[in-house]
Amino acid sequence: MATNPVFNRIDKEAQQYAGFNQAPQQGYGSPSPQAPQGMPAPQGQPQMPMGYPGASESMSPEQLEEMYRQAPAGPAQTGRLTLDDVVMKSLMIFGVVVVMAAISWNVVGAQPELGTPIWMLGMFGSLGLSFMIAFKKTVSVPLILVHAILQGLFLGAVSVTFNAVYDGVVTTAVVATMATAAGMFIAWKVGFIKVTSKSRRIFGMMAMGYLVFLLVNLGASFMGFGDGWGLFGSQWGWLISLLGVGLASYSLAVDFDSIDRGIRAGAPEKYSWLMGHGLIASLVWLYIEFLRLFAILQSD
User: What residues pair up with 295 in beta bridges, in sequence order?
Assistant: First the structure.
């Protein structure tokens, strides 16, 4: 399945806000520093009324005293990214994927001849959109939702097709995906798995190389190599698939780290859509790799 190019963009753009909440403390009565154009004021700085500074009327010492006694604005009040934002957007995207997968499953289950067209549409459509979303200068919610629809169509078609041949493989792949995602989060959180700039670069090159391999292998499978599996049909197929599982698993760690860095850097709330999209894309990738691995093992 497709790689997840979103994490590179998240990492680069999060760095733009790395010093966003590092503003020095101002003395009593001094004006708040102005935030960059289009950005909310740094967290902890009081929100000045309209017209300040430069208003014809001045604030009294009592007004200033009252204003500085107020609790500082939190991320939700300043329009910054929060964990709740990412969780909610991820659940929304995941819901779209699941609904479309269920529809695709039922349609292909009733009419198996539609399996390949829906499979191809979902796979290549979501792959192309993933790169459009990753390199688009603005966060496009419609594109993200269309991508989720295409991913759902692909998942439903490929899952019902595999399950018809390898009974129970879908359930096994779902359980393995959820368990691996939870394990990767715990391992990243406690520091057992680290994400660094160097590891991101290495992972990015490996993921792109694996994507090229998958596209070449897809062509080989259509030509009948490996009984329709391509190189995955060779004696080393399970090992190649295991590599795919490893790459998809590390992609989740990269996503967790990108979300954490974006929140700590004070990135705008709109990036919750992009981060949710990247996280769900990694989960889908991991599921497809497990589905292929277990099908190969069951066929041996």
Answer: none
pLDDT band at residue 45, thresholds of 50, 70 and 90? Answer: very low
Binned at pLDDT 50, 70 and 90, residue 154 comes out as very high
d(CA 101, CA 98): 5
DSSP state of 84: H
In a domain, 271, yes or no: yes
* HEC letters along 105-137: HHHHHHCHHHHHHHHHHHHHHHHHHHHHHHHCC
What does the radius of gyration of the chain's CA atoms come to, in whole angstroms? 24
Residue 25: inside a domain, yes or no? no
pLDDT digits (tens, 9 = 90+) for 78-97: 578 899 999 999 999 999 99
- Please tell me the distance from the alpha carbon of residue 245 to that of residue 115, in angstroms, as a whole number: 24
Half-sphere exposure in the Cβ direction for 22 (13 Å, CA): 7
Its domain, for residue 88, covers 79-299
Name the one residue in this structure whose structure tokens are 């368990």: 179
Averaged pLDDT score across all residues of the chain:
78
* Two tokens, residue 34: 């102005």
CA 121 from chain centre, in angstroms, equals 21
Closest by CA to 155, choosing from 218, 111, 107, is 107
Please report whether residue 64 resides in a domain.
no
What's the rounded Cα separation, in Å, for the pair 28 and 69?
11
Q: How many separate domains does the chain show?
A: 1
Structure-token match 């200033």, residue found: 64
Q: CB atoms < 10 A from the CB of 129, how many?
A: 22
Q: Does residue 69 belong to any structural domain of this protein?
A: no
Question: What pLDDT, on the 0 to 100 scale, is given for residue 138?
Answer: 86
**Is there a contact between 245 and 293 (Cβ–Cβ < 8 Å)?**
yes
Residues 271, 12 contacting (CB under 8 angstroms): no
The token pair that represents 24 in the structure block:
């020095």
